[in-house]
Amino acid sequence: MPRRKPQRKNTRRSAPPDNSEGSLFGSALMRQESGPAGYADESFIVRTIPGARATKSYRCPGCDHDIRPGVAHLVTWPADYGGAEDRRHWHTGCWSGRSTRGLTRRWS
Fold it and tell me: What is the pTM of this model?
């Protein structure tokens, strides 16, 4: 039977990297990014929602498909004037490709 290497007892753990890009909002990390096509000159706040915290179904404005409960995704809103009614839930991949295509769904 193969032996494992003994673990060192004096190992130092490095401190987590200082992320100056984002700030903590509750227990979630927020960051600022440029908006989707058509809104690229605006700045948006982006917050990651892990799958364990995603409890409701939403519609992604990038692809117009459902984001089902339990699926990790992003919540975005305009940095300057965004409120609760301006938040949008995006698939992570749809937000990543936002500069190559426009919104498929618009709100009035």
Answer: 0.68
